[in-house]
Amino acid sequence: MSLFIGASQQYSYAQVDPEKIKIAEIQHAAMSSTFNKVIQVCRDKCIPGEYGENELNTGEQCCVDRCVSKYVKANTIIGTHIQNKGFTPYDSMPEYQGVRAKITQQQ
Fold it and tell me: Which stretches make up the Tim10-like domain (predicted)?
């Protein structure tokens, strides 16, 4: 019994699509990479190498907030621009190309 599905019997015969699992794994890896990059860039920019206190001061907090906000805004603008140009991740990422080929064969 799954914690997320509960005791419902309607999902007991559900099939798992390996291609969808692979796409989810690729998306998870990309999201983790982006998150880790934000943490690294904003920490390097806003927090000094030597910690004087166990909590961030007001200036450091504001710097981190602005840094994360700019990073997310830039990521959103770039993503929107790429989508409007008709670019898909399948065009350049080998991981997606393999999954796309399998999905196309099934359709």
Answer: 22-84
